[in-house]
Amino acid sequence: MMFRMTGLSDIDNHACSRQLVWAWPGFVMVVACAAMYYWLYIDATFNIADDGSYAQVVYELRHGIDPHRLQLSYGIAWFKLGQFLFWLTGNSYLTAEALFHGALAIVAGLVFVVVGRLTRNPWLALAGGALTAAAPAFPATAFYAVSTMLNLFCQMALACRWRTLRAWDVVPAAVALAVTFQIRPDFGYFFAIPLGALLLLSGGIQGGRIFGQLLGAALAAFISAHIPLAVDGLRHGYFDLVIANYLRYPALLWYLLETALNSPAVADNGGAGAVLARTPLSALWHGPLSAAKSALTLYAPVAGIGLFVACHAAWAVGSWRRGQGAVAFDRLIIAGVLLASALASFPHYFLFRPDLAHVANFMAGYTVLALVLVGDVARKAGQAHGLLARGARAVVLLVVLTGLAGYGWVGLTEQGSGSITVAQGRTQRFIAANGVDVRLTENEHALYSWLYAQITENSRNDDPIICVPFCPGIAFMTGRRMLLGDFYVDDALLLREPDWIDRAIAASRASAVPVVVVQDWAINGTNQSRFVVWARRYIDFLDAAGYRRVTLSDYTVYIRP
Fold it and tell me: Which of 123, 128, 430, 478 counts the highest number of beta carbons within 10 A?
């Protein structure tokens, strides 16, 4: 199915038949340029947290661990893809990074295509692709942007011709939804809503027989796309884990939402549990500069989304008053799919983890929405009569473009997005196990070399170790397995698993774990979220068992006597 559409302000019954000859050549160009850009710094830094966690999970799967022993943060298909790639290349940190950055390059290309098809403006499309490529999502969680753009691309193709859909039209969108469920079920549940709405709307206008065909085709495609993972799960005994992962997400999302809403909202008041404190809006004018930049990236999209809703509501009312109700409804359908795609990652960054990494994960979908709004407002410039209308248009353009430019500025000058800024000052070559061959700063090189020596000199290759609260990349770079299946632990863990410390002590005692690495990190921005505070009983166990402490920087290595 070809993706055919036009600008929101030009929608009519024939618009979807028009093609853009530059859309797919532009996609290839953006993806190629993004890939070359990422290759400049793909080996810069060694992320022992998120990137290292992914690599270690794949490493454990390659060694035949029962997936039930792992607390997987995402759908197992994402890790199975890494396991396949590691099977092709061998255990390799660079392979994991190539997967992340390859996905980000494709995301930038999809932003280019979708913006271009909706605005019919190559310059806006190029701006969207360039911004998304230059300051991309956080690499290890590239699936945020992949899920958003894959579903937006496919569902927009349905939205532009929703009145005349046929069974084969819905197959790509259903497959995209199935892939999303297998990678991250919460995004799957979210994107099922606009897809279901499109099927209902189309069936409602075309009749029950067509609706049955649309629904049947969507279900068949959705189920078929699950067959490879289902077969592998049945063969290797983890199919129940796939189903359990789908079923646990509604309750998990409700828990996170409840935690976010009941926790202090801004950094002035501290944080709680799994929720990171949010920079207050007042930092925009009170500063300091670092807080002002954080506030700009956090709140500018909120204003942009609000203006998008207000503008499309006003345009819809105007169209209905002119007797163009059908055209107005078509525009609202497309606007609704755009809005859903922008909102998909909104709670993750605004409620749960309001930091640059999660803002970057959100920005692909929002960039499309923002640039489509810019295109529509600019196109309607000739229709703006009177000082008030012209002023409103100027405000919309100023707020939206300032927000995008502000994100580009922060994303390219602060470490947290996937931009080239991560390479600053990293010139020291560091080589370790499992294909770790990266560039580090002098301090990082000294620290990681010290950690490598402490672990390899005090444990054997087949000895499992412990790295807490979130630094499994240390195990990966030393070629060690992880004793505990929880690679990420924070103070919220005890709310869900109150016996975790007892289980960790029992496992450590039974295996006589030779090395325990503890990073002194306030993982949720509060003193309570430091491992040595909330897991004090575990530290006391290590001391009582006679483990020797050696410390460098904010890392303490506990070595078995």
Answer: 128
User: Structure tokens of 374?
Assistant: 């810019």
CA distances to 256, 285, 428, 518, 532 from 501, in Å = 22, 44, 38, 14, 12
Rounded Cα gap, residues 275 and 261, in angstroms: 9
Cα(126)–Cα(160) distance, integer angstroms: 22
Statement: residue 249 has pLDDT above 90: no
> Contact, 99 vs 82, CB < 8 A?
yes
Q: Are 176 and 20 in contact (CB under 8 A)?
A: no
Nearest CA-CA partner of 56 in 517, 541, 522: 517
- With vertex at residue 507, the alpha carbon angle to CA 527 and CA 458, rounded to the nearest 5 degrees, is 85
Q: Which amino acid is at 270?
A: G
Length of the chain: 561
Question: Tens digits of per-residue pLDDT, 41-91?
Answer: 999 999 999 999 999 999 999 999 999 999 888 899 999 999 999 999 999
What is the reported pLDDT for 32?
98
The mean pLDDT value for 407-412 works out to 96
* CA atoms of 354 and 337, how far apart (whole Å): 24
485 vs 468: CA distance, rounded Å = 11
Contacting residues for 122 by C-beta, under 8 A, at least 6 apart: 22, 26, 116
Q: What is the pTM of this model?
A: 0.91
Asked if residue 16 has pLDDT above 60, the reply is no
Neighbours of 529 (CB within 10 A): 21
User: Is pLDDT above 60 for 406?
Assistant: yes
Do the bridges between strand 515-519 and strand 555-559 make them parallel or antiparallel, or are there none, so unpaired? antiparallel
Query: Span 430-444, mean pLDDT?
Result: 97
In this structure, are residues 483 and 466 in contact, taking their beta carbons and an 8 Å threshold?
Answer: yes
Specify the pLDDT at position 68.
93
Computed from CA positions of residues 298, 304, 305, 306, in that sequence, does the dihedral angle turn out positive or negative? positive
Alpha helices in 441-523 (DSSP H): 442-457, 473-477, 493-496, 500-511
Specify the amino acid at residue 501. Answer: I
Computed over its alpha carbons, how large is the radius of gyration of the chain?
A: 25
pLDDT for 260 equals 61
In this structure, the dihedral spanned by the alpha carbons of residues 99, 100, 101 and 106, taken in order and rounded to 10 degrees, is: 80
Spell out a b/e string for 67-87, using b for 16 or more CB atoms within 10 Å of the CB, else e. beebeeebbbbbbbbbbebbe
* Nearby residues of 306 by Cβ (< 8 Å), 6 or more positions away: none
